[in-house]
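Q: My labmate handed me this sequence with no annotations at all. I'd like to see what the chain might look like in three dimensions before we decide whether it's worth expressing. Could you predict it?
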Amino acid sequence: MLTSMQQIRDKALTLPVQTVAVACAHDTEALKAVAEAHALGLARFILVGETDKIRALADGMGLDLSDFELVDARGEAAGAAATVQVVASGRARILLKGFVDSSVLF
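A: Here is what I predict for the chain of 106 residues:
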């Protein structure tokens, strides 16, 4: 049984790296989580959302986006739909909710 975040991270590092599509990734907290997971080598990321905002936030955080794929989508509904399409197409295996209301995804 995993009982700490460190144990979860250690276990995750033994698993194959997956690609995660982040819905409406134009959010500081979402990008912080993505940056940390990327730095640990836990996953690859496709950032879906308002790419101008994603780039501005990343610049402000000192986050280099060269290892990330960006997909431009304006608004919550378009961002959610584009993220679902990325996963459905097989480009990513995991969908992560960013700055989008849960009701838009479901």
